[in-house]
């Protein structure tokens, strides 16, 4: 057959989403599975969000505000930055894609740690860039020294995932200081802080507050996790105005929908509830970590809303055994299993499933 699409995409693994409750109902006949596979927060939309969505629905025959002006102004006020430094997008993953588009030509290099967010290789391939993967260190975190050394004159972008998905590990300020000093000024560094709201370690810096004034640093945040809007797809970046302007040039027009903008404005008014929810998640994360370490002592400390079980070749079998117990986790073949923190009851169900699964390995 005549080839219509790029040959290099044949080798690219597709993004694998966490499995769904419906998958378990169909395949295993388990009607009410618990999904701990996609790092959402389990408490439903924030107060005020459903009403804002309903109100915005009446405007869906019109295009959204392209510049998301009200939302950017609100975020700018919260974050203490000028609104021209902000770009919103269809999830922060779309903004990561746009940053690659705005920086890389085919053959340029994107450096990131591995294992990290599984969208990164896809983003690199999408723009024809070469992925330069720097292996995680022995503690499953970024080896920032090796990452700085991996930067060449072809490197246009470095992706630093802090905390790291899926291992939950975090980079500390002293290491980040050294790393950012070592990366050349003409290489853009993205601090992907999708899980920032769950960080409790004072040594893990807020990328925006600590490094936001550096010209080559971009901070990526999302409303999908702590802010409960995963299904509406909205995230934002903060960059220097010139970088933000370049990203806007490659933006898919109107990709932050009217409903998402309205929902985000409402969610941002519910900060006290976000803090309350995050406190629950954090305390549960620490409880789950302590408990699951009784089965697997090597579980690293997490600063995110999930924990990582470094099970290597047993990851897939462990995931399947948990599914038999009605709990969906996220195995990464040959590497480990990521488990999202749910409600206390859901976490109890996971801990029981983990005990069963550990015996079956
Ligand atoms: N960055 C990281 C590290 C993530 O884990 C995720 C979500 N899995 C994202 C970005 C993207 O989030 P969203 O597109 O929903 O904003």
How would the blueprint of this fold be written?
Layout: H1 21-28, E1 34-35, H2 49-57, H3 69-79, E2 86-89, H4 92-103, E3 109-114, H5 119-126, E4 130-135, H6 144-150, E5 155-161, H7 173-182, E6 188-192, H8 207-211, E7 217-222, E8 235-238, H9 241-250, H10 258-268, H11 271-293, E9 306-309, H12 315-324, E10 327-328, E11 330-332, E12 336-340, H13 344-360
Parallel strand pairs: 1-10, 3-4, 3-5, 5-6, 6-7
Antiparallel strand pairs: 2-8, 7-8, 9-12, 11-12
Helix pairs in contact: 2-10, 3-10, 4-5, 4-9, 6-7, 11-13, 12-13
Bound molecules: 4'-deoxy-4'-aminopyridoxal-5'-phosphate.
Residues 39, 91-93, 117, 161, 165, 192, 194, 222, 224, 230, 235 line the site of 4'-deoxy-4'-aminopyridoxal-5'-phosphate.
Structural summary, described in words:
- The chain is α/β, with parallel strands linked by helices and 361 residues long.
- The chain has two domains: 7-45 and 271-360, Aspartate Aminotransferase, domain 1 (Alpha-Beta Complex), CATH 3.90.1150.10; 49-269, Aspartate Aminotransferase, domain 2, CATH 3.40.640.
- It is 39% helix and 15% strand.
- The strands form three sheets. The protein has a seven-stranded mixed β-sheet with strand order 2-8-7-6-5-3-4, with helices on both faces. Strands 9-12-11 form a three-stranded antiparallel β-sheet, with helices on one face. Strands 1-10 form a two-stranded parallel ribbon.
- Helix 8 (207-211) links the parallel strand 6 and strand 7.
- Helix 4 runs parallel beside helix 5, helix 4 packs across helix 9 (241-250) and helix 12 crosses helix 13 (344-360).
- 4'-deoxy-4'-aminopyridoxal-5'-phosphate binds at residues 39, 91-93, 117, 161, 165, 192, 194, 222, 224, 230, 235.
